[in-house]
Design goal:
Mean pLDDT: 88
Low-confidence stretches: none
Number of helices: 5
Distance between the termini: 53 Å
Helix content: 40-55%
Shape: globular
Order of helices and strands: EEEHEHEHHH
Length: 166
Amino acid sequence: MDLYKIAARLYQYTAIDDCSGFKIIELYPSRNATNTLKFLETVIEQMPFPIQRTQTDRGLEFFAYSFKVRLMEYGISSKPVKPRSPHLNDKAERTQRTDLDEFYSTIDIEDPDLPNLLSQWQFHYNWFRCYSSLNGKTPMDMVTSMSLKRRYQKKSKQCMTPTKTE
């Protein structure tokens, strides 16, 4: 989880899954604990699977007591990266660069429809944009294949578990 200043009073919060590359992005007028909590709720609602852990930089908004309590309520652990180590949060940093190059460079950030345009960009990013790091798959392809793999493994375990017969 990370945030990036797009313009004056415009911050993009970003959450990206480490394995699939599935990403959630939202815009807020300031970086604070209240907006971070709102974003956490959005991430929990939109991620296609349960969240086990967050990795964040050491921004005050991620160290707020209310944010830490909410993570504990959801059973989500938190791992802050070391100070002055943006390379340890490389996926979030890289995807924000992609947003700047491929999305923000093509739109007017003063557009009143910006939240809707960002939502469309997020959909395109997760469902249609292929990545060499994912062997030419989209993030949603990865989510689907991981889900099917887990389901198959679960069924295999059930089939291999001996049952008592009377």
